[in-house]
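[agent] plan:
  1. take the single chain provided in the ticket
  2. run structure prediction with default settings
  3. attach structure tokens to the ticket
  4. add a short note for the reviewer (M.T.)
[agent] executing step 1
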Amino acid sequence: MDEPSKPGFVDRLRTRFAWFDHVMRAQQRYQDAKGDFYAAGITYFTVFALFALLMVGFAVAGFILSARPHLLEAIEHRIRITVAGNFGQQLIALMDSAVASRTSVGIIGLATAAWAGLGWMANLREALSQMWEQRVEPPGFVRTKLSDLLALVSTFVALLLTFGLTALGSPSLMAAVLKRVGIDDIASFYGVLRAASLLMSFLVAWLLFTWMIARLPREHTHFLSSLWAGLLAAVGFEIFKQVGALYLQSVMHGPAGATFGPVLGLMVFAYVTARLILFATAWAATSAAVLALTPVEPPPPAQITPRLQVDEGLSGRQALAAAAAGALGALGLSRWARRKR
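[agent] step 2 finished; step 3 output follows
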């Protein structure tokens, strides 16, 4: 008999280390749920929505400048001083046209932002639900869109709070607060301010990712596992932010990098962040606590297939062989009986 095959190196590591087994379970769940496919869709709608929000921002700036002509004149004067020649005139003409078309740009930007935002939220919620293996039947088109709109507004508010708290923890704002209280020697406190800024940014990211993992799926999930997954996502996000800052510093020197670097950086940033959130969700969904609460599905019903075998009797060759065997047996038996007499 063949000896049973020995477990491989990865299987032995999974048996020995529980955390490594958890990583492999999360990776398998991420792959089975098509995490890369959903991350690409989220990235597409993220970039699309950001450009639409830029249109809205230009429209808002146009309304502000049209209501304050002196501010518009000051900006145009600053452009003439800073940028000489035809290029400066083109910038002024472009700004004037943006102010003149502020209403149409704002309406188109709002409509595009609403459409892209709902698509972004639908893809994100569906991806998170797939990581949790939720098979929720949609309640209907209208109710689904209203639910996505409510989730989009709440996410937008959470992002604003995130950016606001992150800005409050910035070293420049902390330095201004120190000057307000009468501390002028800011250089000696730079390390403390930098550490406080990173800590504030990390805590805010932790809360944001935890809320997204636990509350954005179609059904609410295990909060404690989502809390640990949010911590994992926050650590990876902070590391990725530092690497991204180094990338932008390296590509912004040349003209090609200044032109295409921010766009490529934005796409890479959105894609990696989406993958990070989805993997952290798969990590939460494959924790021991969640798997212990997951109901075991019953086995599929057994299918009984009767097999009917028809006995057609002995064939001619079989009958002839049986008769010959019987004759030989009778002959042998008669000879034995004669010898006994």
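[agent] step 4 note for reviewer: The chain has a mean pLDDT of 77.
[agent] ticket updated
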